[in-house]
Design goal:
The complex is a heterodimer of chains A (516) and B (85). Chain A has helices at residues 46-56, 61-64, 111-116, 140-145, 147-150, 156-164, 177-187, 220-231, 249-253, 266-279, 306-309, 322-325, 331-348, 417-425, 438-443, 457-460, 478-489, 501-508, and strands at residues 19-24, 38-43, 76-79, 82-83, 99-103, 167-171, 191-195, 236-240, 258-261, 283-289, 292-298, 357-362, 367-372, 414-415, 431-434, 450-451, 470-473, 495-498. Chain A contains 18 helices and 18 strands. An eight-stranded mixed β-sheet of chain A has the order 8-7-6-9-10-11-12-13, sandwiched between helices. Chain A has a five-stranded mixed β-sheet with strand order 2-1-5-3-4. The radius of gyration of chain A is 28 Å and the shape is flat. With 516 residues, chain A is an alpha/beta fold. Chain A folds into three domains: 19-103, Ubiquitin-like (UB roll); 151-400, Rossmann fold; 403-508, Oxidized Rhodanese, domain 1, CATH 3.40.250.10. Helix content of chain A is 28%, strand content 16%. In chain A, helix 7 runs parallel beside helix 8 (220-231) and helix 7 runs parallel beside helix 13 (331-348). Chain B has 85 residues and is an alpha+beta fold. Chain B has a single domain (4-79), classed as Beta-grasp domain (Ubiquitin-like (UB roll)), CATH 3.10.20. Chain B has three helices and seven strands. In chain B, a hairpin with a 2-residue loop joins strand 4 and strand 5 (61-63). The termini of chain B are far apart. Classes of the chains: A alpha/beta (516), B alpha+beta (85). The interface between A and B is large, with 55 and 36 residues.
Chain lengths: 516, 85
């Protein structure tokens, strides 16, 4: 059985019959087809159909075929929804009624060759090559500071001046943004913008290496600016202390050459993706989950975007946030430095970028995997016929504003920590159920509570007496609200939810209780 | 001769099943992604909501839709979205 998609959705054997196929022509090529957006051509394979097409529209030929008559490397062709590179290329058989889509590639250069590393390096960010654009010559101090870069022929003095003339925006100054910001500042990127609005918390320091213990309580961006200026006074640090929204995203991103997505929530990821697609900028993506990470470079001008990978955000509550799920401290260090590496390569125009590839990292197995990622011709924002032309504010659901996903009307009542304390001291106390994970239980739990992790609740519901009063709790009250809701639906009548979870209990009732 | 496909599980899918990979028997004549997922969900019902937003890859290439044919020796990966930073 062949590798890749050769077995996908295609019959194994097909005779060489002529089939009539529709060919979708992208806007940039329509001037060669007399404005036609959908042409018809016949053939038994993809190659034959395209050759029949250029017989009718001569002017198209040099855009689709090289001098030797082979399909050009940078021409991306989809048969229905499969990239023919992953089928049998020109030789892929076609059937009547199939649709071939020619996916536009960007003007100039041959980006698809750069994606596969076949041709010479192509500058991907397009910093102008003129000397005046690179600013003044490097100073003596800069020569010494960047000497290990200057010794690399791939960087050299010219490359270092390119870095100095570059502007990178980091969205999120957390686990991913922290190591990325440090390395980009060290590398001499001229201007680093940061978007974040949090303050430094002690629980950040396990992974957010940009901050120190003395920064606890300070706005992250103030602390970041101090640290980055200390690391490299050449770097201009611009701080954007605000939420990214559909209102401000385009204006904030516009001045920068490359955007590094290190945010911790889906709504912001979709904003960053959509804004970079609309602005035509590379989006250096990284994301982490417990022991796993993903990284890629999305650049809709020459490859897929984040929506080609995941068209829509998942429904609220399906994916735990970092705070709920935990994360290995060193993991964002690995993924964030992959993002910094890709950013520097883009700025220098060297190497083979992650465009069209998704790197998956598993820290437990210490294994990197790579997936080829294709542009989705039906992508709502970067496809052949985009339907989304602006930005969307998805409701925030990972972290802060995640509270309420239960339908109104059937909500189990809330109990305050003080009320629960009083009930526990009284006669006939309620049964207290902890729906957190065992690892959270080990940090701290309420006296006399029973541990039933939320995923186990449906199976273990038989352990609970229907007549008894039940109080559920979790870390902050969100998961236990789901659990209480479930019990109500199953017919339990005496169910309530500890408002604010064990966190509120620690604040209001038992200040000696460890918090996390 | 192997008679199974290997299913690689990532992130929340891994937790739902409790393993990083499972070997799933398929007929020698092959099967489809859809049939494979239906079988997995039957054994691991908690996987169902996760599959909805997940991307699937067959032998290292993303597949769109669930009609893709699979056969013994293939490697199917389930990649749920995640957004930590």
């Amino acid at each position: 059985m062949g590798k890749g998609g050769s077995n996908i959705d295609r019959p194994k054997e097909e005779g060489p019959t002529m089939s009539k196929v529709q060919v979708k022509v992208p806007t940039p090529l329509r001037s060669f087809t007399g404005g036609t957006s959908i042409a018809e051509a016949e053939g038994s394979t993809v190659g034959e159909v395209l050759r029949a097409l250029v017989t009718e529209y001569h002017a198209l030929e040099k855009h689709l075929f090289g001098a030797g008559g082979q399909l050009r490397n940078f021409v991306t062709v989809y048969l229905n929804d499969e990239d023919v590179r992953y089928l049998r290329r020109d030789a892929t058989p076609v059937r009547s009624g199939d649709v071939l889509s020619i996916v536009p590639s960007i003007a100039g250069g041959s980006p698809a060759e750069a994606v596969r590393g076949a041709g010479r390096p192509v500058p991907l960010v397009g910093l102008a090559e003129g000397d005046e654009e690179l600013g003044p010559p490097l100073t003596r101090d800069q020569m010494r500071r960047y000497s290990r870069h200057l010794l690399l022929p791939e960087v050299g003095v010219r490359g270092q001046r390119k870095l100095r003339a570059s502007k990178v925006l980091l969205v999120g100054a957390g686990g991913l943004g922290a190591p990325a910001a440090l390395y980009l500042a060290g590398a001499g990127v001229g201007e680093i913008g940061l978007v974040d609005f949090d303050r430094v918390e002690v629980s950040n320091l396990q992974r957010q290496v940009l901050y120190g213990t003395h920064d606890i309580g300070r706005p992250k961006l103030e602390a970041a600016r101090d640290r980055l200026n200390d690391l490299n006074p050449d770097v201009v640090v611009r701080i954007h202390e605000q939420h990214l929204t559909s209102e401000n995203a385009l204006d904030i991103l516009r001045p920068y050459d490359v955007i590094l997505d290190g945010t911790d929530n889906f709504p912001t990821r979709y904003l960053v993706n959509d804004a970079t697609v609309l602005l035509g900028k590379p989006n250096v993506y990284g994301s982490i989950y417990r022991f796993e990470g993903q990284a890629s470079v999305f650049d809709a001008r020459r490859g897929p975007c984040y929506r080609c990978l995941y068209p829509e955000p998942p429904p609220p509550g399906l994916v735990p946030s970092c705070a709920e799920g935990g994360v290995l401290g060193v993991l964002p260090g690995l993924v964030g430095t992959i993002q910094a590496t890709e950013t520097v390569k883009l700025l220098l125009g060297i190497g083979e970028s992650l465009i069209g590839r998704l790197v998956l990292f598993d820290a437990l197995a210490l294994r990197f995997r790579e997936l080829r990622l294709r542009k989705n011709p039906d992508c709502v924002i970067c496809g052949t016929h985009p339907t989304q032309t602006g930005l969307i504010d998805y409701p925030a659901f990972c972290g802060v504003a995640a509270e309420d996903t239960t339908p109104a009307g059937a909500k189990p009542p809330q109990m305050t920590p003080e009320a629960l304390a009083a009930r526990l001291a009284a006669e006939d106390p309620p049964m207290v159920i902890d729906v957190r994970n065992p690892s959270e239980w080990e940090i701290a739990h309420l006296p006399g509570a029973t541990l039933i992790p939320l995923p186990d609740l449906p199976q273990r519901v038989t352990e609970l007496a229907r007549a008894r009063e039940l109080v559920l709790y979790c870390h902050t009250g969100r998961r236990s609200a789901q659990g209480a809701q479930l019990l109500v639906e199953l017919g339990f009548t005496h169910v309530s939810n500890l408002a604010g979870g064990i966190e509120a209990w620690a604040q209001k009732v038992d200040p000696t209780m460890p918090r996390y | 001769m192997t008679r199974s496909v290997r299913v690689l599980l990532f992130a929340t899918a891994r937790e739902a099943v409790g393993a990083a990979s499972v070997d799933w028997e398929v007929p020698a004549s092959g099967s489809t992604v859809r049939a494979l997922l239906a079988g997995l969900v039957e054994e691991h019902p908690q996987l169902e909501p996760i599959l909805k937003g997940s991307r699937l890859a067959c032998n290292g290439v993303y597949v769109r839709g669930r009609r893709a044919r699979i056969g013994p020796g293939d490697e199917i990966a389930i990649h749920p979205p995640y957004s930590g930073g």
